[in-house]
From TrEMBL:
This is Uncharacterized protein. It comes from Hymenobacter artigasi. Keywords: Membrane, Transmembrane, Transmembrane helix. The chain crosses the membrane at residues 41-62, 71-89, 109-127. The lineage of its organism: Bacteria, Pseudomonadati, Bacteroidota, Cytophagia, Cytophagales.
Length: 141
């Protein structure tokens, strides 16, 4: 069944430029290398891969800042990589099991950036996206 022209004309399209896609694919390669190094306890490689993995995630978030949805998800990824890298470092340097507060170890501190990323997504889906939906509905009336 064909889609009515009016539906197609009002649908917003987000296209990723080829250079951005190449950077995102390279980002995935660095992320996998970081996590493989973590799994294999290859400390130098794991620590080295934090820099390009987190750096590219920041660049991607910056480049998508004009799109609320993309920015929210890319910032969540930045905080995910931050938490993941901290957790890896806590294991590499042996403070993952160190008690820092009652029932809290060094590894548990990775929850801070994980929860910040989750908070960004919750804000987007519970506040920002409903506002955008209402604004687009009013604009089409």
């Amino acid at each position: 069944m064909a889609v009515p022209e009016t539906a197609v004309a009002t649908e917003e399209v987000y296209a990723i430029p080829a250079a951005f896609r190449k950077m995102e694919n390279t980002h995935i390669l660095f992320w996998l290398l970081k996590d493989i190094a973590w799994c294999m306890v290859w400390r130098p490689l794991g620590l080295l891969m934090v820099v390009p993995t987190l750096g590219i995630a920041l660049v991607i978030a910056w480049r998508t800042r004009a799109y609320a949805s993309e920015l929210a998800h890319n910032l969540a990824i930045v905080f995910w990589i931050t938490a993941n890298s901290y957790w890896m470092g806590s294991e590499f340097f042996g403070f993952d099991a160190v008690q820092v507060a009652p029932h809290v170890t060094g590894k548990h501190l990775a929850l801070v950036p994980f929860l910040i990323g989750l908070g960004i997504l919750l804000y987007y889906y519970l506040v920002q996206k409903p506002r955008e939906t209402r604004a687009s509905q009013v604009a089409t009336l």
